[in-house]
Amino acid sequence: MAFRYTDYVKRGQIALFAMGSFLQARSFRLRKRCLSPFSPKFYTLRVLARNPGFAALSILSLAVGIGVTTAVASLADAILFRPLPVPVPNEVVRVFTASPGAALGFVSYPDYRDLRDRAQTFSGLIAETQVMPAVRSGNSAPEIRMGLSVSTNYFDVLGVSASLGRTFRPEESHQAVMVLADGFWRSRFGASTSVLGRTVRVGNGAFVVIGVAPKGFGLDRFLHEDFYLPMEFYGSTLGTNPLEDRAKRFLTVRGRLARGGTPARAQAELTNLAARLAQDFPATNQGRRAIVLTELASRMRTDRSMPALSAMFLAVGLLVLGIACTNVTGLLLMRAEAREREIAVRMALGSGTARLLLQSLMEALMLAAAGAIVGIPLAWGALHLIASAATLPTDLPFSIAARIDGRALILTLGVTLAVAVGCGWTPWIVARRFAIASGLKSGSHRGAITTRSVLVTGAIALASMLVATGGLLIKNLRGAGQVDLGYRTDHLLVLTLDPAQSGYDEAGTVNLYRELLERLRQLPGIKAAALAQSVPLGLTGAQRQIASESDGHESRQHQDGSLSVWSNTVGPGYFEMLRLGVVSGRGFDERDVKTGRPVVVVNEELASRLERKSVNKPKETAGRASGLVGKKIGVDGQLREIVGIVRTAKYFEMAEQPRPFVYLPYTQSFASRMVIHLETEGAPANLAMTVRSEIAKLDPELAVMDLRSLDRYRWQGAAYQTRIAVYVVGGAAGCGLFLALLGLQGLIASAVERRRREIGIRMAVGADQRIIIVFVLGHSCRIVLAGTTSGIAAAVEASRLIVGLIAGSQGTDAKLLAGSALLVAASSFTACAVPIHRALKTDPAVALRHE
Predict the structure, then answer these.
(1) How far apart are alpha carbons 634 and 646 in whole angstroms?
(2) Whether residues 554 and 660 fall in one domain
(3) At 474, phi and psi to the nearest 5?
(4) To the nearest 10°, the Cα dihedral for 385, 387, 391, 395?
(5) Distances (CA, A) of 60 to 53, 63, 323, 739
(6) In sequence order, what are the beta bridge partners of 640?
(7) Over the range 475-494, which residues count as b (16 or more CB within 10 Å of their CB) and which as e?
(8) Three-class DSSP category at 520
(9) CB-hemisphere CA count at 13 Å for 305?
(10) Which residues, in sequence order, are CB contacts of 555 under 8 Å at separation 6+?
(11) 100 three-class SS
(12) Judgement on whether residues 425 and 503 belong to the same structural domain of the protein
């Protein structure tokens, strides 16, 4: 038979037509099935629409749970977990130097330059340091702003491009150019594109704007800089250039790993380079090591309170979410009880457990999705409330950059799916146990009722734990005011000046401070005035290298290297004003002139360490080192005589352990940026405007910064983390108690409805209202008692974390725990008022006729 091509073409066309018809019919059946009112998703929508009260209560519970969880997780992410806003952030690591006195210290510019030029495991190393000059643009008044002095390869190594203009070039390291931060560009220059090429006075120099950094860029999690300056040029404008001193360590150094590089390889290389620097420069680098850490590891080690705070936030979020889930699971169980006969009929007609599971999960998923949609705005509002309450005693641009971003939305999606699975699984398990025969009979399943009771008991327990923990936080925050700081904070007004930013040289600055202090002392209401470089419990400080002197004749270092300690430069009258007790010797006075013998005052902790080191005394001799007065120690390579020993105080945190500290006289350690301390007769805030006006009379070009009372430094600064914890835990406790009460009310209302016939019979035989109330409250009393007992016990365990977080914390308090339990119990019984009212209004005839 001859081959005919047209036959095969026709057969192919027929086959394709048949296949298309089959697929079209199959697709129609699929669409019909999916759009059928009996499909799981449309059936679920119909069920929820027929039960608006059940749907609204479930969505509200999940909205609160998911919203609180999203808010606290975003807060924890902002303070600890969020990666740097740069391309490939896991390649960027931190570089520290370590000494016997500082486990993680800063880096000097000469050390940074040597490491940058010699390291091979990095594609680049960058350095930065905060600067706070007076900024003027146009005819505006000078204003202290915070910027960053950075190496010119800063943006290139980080892989960040300017959103407007360009960033620094290598040849601009000694040129007066600047890059603006996005926020400063928008607030000061109105986001004008004509800002490029404009001149801005920063300190005593005029800088030309060459670019604007992208929105959201900034490596610090809390302080947000306004501009960037070339480090080499800015350092040369400071008179004594700190970039030339290898002993001055003030730089934050980061590096981007080269291709194939790892933190371990970088650590090995920098260890060798640090050892070589110690050999080449023994006077400043003896015993000093280099440490490489990832960004997350450096955050956890430099601020050990943040991991504990983040863990508390996440735990609180999970507790509230757990309460919400128990509520919704109980409601779904109640729905399963109400639909017992329907489910039994469907199983008798051949419906499988898989379809029941799909329907249960679909119902839980729709509720969770609706809860997430409502919860995200709640989370956004909660974050804004926390941000408005998170204040520090500074004029610097400080904020917690917690926001609902892509990471938060991904977390919300994951939480929503987990909630849907968790809440939808339990009713399916109960439904699977329904026997067809028993399901067609009347009555309730005891197992489902018991499960709901256990869930509500757990919700009451979690709410009790949150309420008790919040109460403990508030109590211990108040107790932190009783912590002995080692100095006074009442009736003290402080303000910061930097005359060098207004063109004053060293001699002019000294004369200015002398005249200003005299004028301020003469103001009504001011008793005394003194100078200091930093404020106790403030945000700034300076480190010094201390070398013990064994014979008192020449300065030499021990083989174990010098000790890095924090320091403060103060003027005469400082110790007397703050009542910082001098335990031996004296403080600074008029004898400590610039041309006189160099002197120093140390605290008891440093004195005891120096004495133990020199004569090998045991640690128990701490605080008895008065014999060191008159001896000499090396401070940054200069031999100084110890003229006094003062009490060991709290310098940065109220919960800090005793740390060594030194004080240098202002007359021998000049600094332009100083803090004026004023002792007032009345409230310090009442003299703020008077003091500001007096400074303006002396020189209107002087920019005043951080004018506030020292008490505000204590409560807004040192107690900052505790205040945030109180806000978060207190708000979560309120939400958790609200959700637990909703669950309890639903359980009691269901119990009253289920036992309506029994209540009707009791009322028919003459039971009075008191018997009905006791009858209804009997079950709720057992739940509340079990929940509060277990919740208070859990709060006792949680108090251990509070003790480590708050200074002066005394742990648990029996009266406070009892009060928390009574509060939860009283609130729980109040929630039962509506079900009790419905029970008392029961008509026996109607109840019996209904049955």
Answers:
(1) 18
(2) yes
(3) -65, -45
(4) -130
(5) 11, 5, 12, 9
(6) 633
(7) bbbeebeebebbbebebbbb
(8) helix
(9) 18
(10) 547, 549, 632, 634, 637, 638, 639
(11) coil
(12) no
Quote the crossing angle between the two packed helices 720-754 and 353-389, to the nearest 10°: 140
Q: Amino acid letter at 252? A: T
Helix (H) or strand (E) holding 416, with range, is helix 406-432
Q: Report how far residue 427's alpha carbon sits from residue 318's, in angstroms, rounded to the nearest whole number.
A: 22
690-708 per-position pLDDT tens digit: 999 999 899 888 888 888 8
Element (H, E) at 773: helix 769-805
- DSSP letter string over 8-23? HHHHHHHHHHHHHHHH
How far apart are the C-alpha atoms of 172 and 817, rounded to whole Å? 64
Per-residue b or e along 714-742, where b marks 16 or more CB atoms closer than 10 Å to that residue's CB? bbbbbbbbbbbbbbbbbbbbbbbbbbbbb
Q: What share of the chain is helix, strand, coil (3-state, %, to 5)?
A: 55, 15, 30
476 Cβ neighbours under 8 A, 6+ residues apart: 722, 802, 806, 808, 809, 810
Distance (Å, whole) CA 486 – CA 494:
18
* Amino acid symbol at 291: I
Please give the tally of structural domains in the chain.
4
Query: What are the tens digits of pLDDT across the range 242-286?
Result: 888 888 888 999 999 998 889 999 999 999 999 999 999 988 888
- Relative orientation angle of helices 305-338 and 720-754, to the nearest 10 degrees: 10
Nearest by Cα to 629 from 657, 656, 610, 651: 610
**569, 652: one domain:** yes
d(CA 688, CA 684): 7
Task: Give me 851's structure tokens.
Answer: 């049955």
Cβ 70 vs Cβ 408: under 8 Å = yes
Give the 3-state secondary structure of residue 580: coil
CA distance 717 to 539: 8
Q: What is the rounded distance in angstroms from the CA atom of residue 729 to the CA atom of residue 477?
A: 13
* Across 513-540, average pLDDT: 90
Q: Can you say whether the dihedral through the CA atoms of 502, 503, 506, 511 is positive or negative? A: negative
Q: Give one word for 190, left, alpha or beta, with left for phi > 0 and alpha for psi -120 to 50.
A: left
For 233-237, 523-527, 666-670, which range has the lowest pLDDT when averaged over its residues?
233-237
Q: What is the pLDDT of residues 334-393, one digit of tens each?
A: 776 666 666 666 666 666 666 767 777 888 888 889 899 999 999 998 888 877 777 766
Q: Are 431 and 407 within one domain?
A: yes
Whether 88 maps to a domain, the answer reads no
Half-sphere exposure of 327 (CA within 13 A, CB side): 36
Query: Which residues make beta-bridge pairs with 135?
Result: 143, 202
Q: Which of 668, 691, 717 is the last residue of a domain?
A: 717
- pLDDT of 127 > 50? The answer is yes
Token code pair at residue 626: 């008065």
Q: What angle do CA 53, 58, 61 make, to 5 degrees?
A: 125
3-class secondary structure per residue, 467-481: HHHHHHHHHHHHHHH
Tell me how far apart the alpha carbons of residues 270 and 289 are, in angstroms, rounded to a whole number.
8
Domain range for 6 is 1-35
Inter-CA distances, 559 with 60, 97, 285, 287, 639, Å: 67, 18, 11, 8, 18
* 170, 231 contact by CB (below 8 A): no
Highest mean pLDDT among 17-26, 31-40, 774-783: 774-783
Tokens of 139: 């005819």
Q: Which of 251, 286, 321 is the last residue of a domain?
A: 286
Q: Quote the CA–CA distance of 178 and 296 in Å, as a whole number.
A: 30
Residue 549 domain-assigned (yes or no): yes
Both 194 and 322 in one domain: the answer is no
Q: Give the residue carrying structure tokens 């439904």.
A: 431
The amino acid sitting at 278 is: A
- Scan for tokens 């950094």, then name that residue: 213
pLDDT score, position 437: 43
Secondary structure letter of residue 713 according to DSSP: I
DSSP for 434-472 reads --HHHHTSSS--HHHHHHHHHHHHHHHHHHHHHHHHHHH
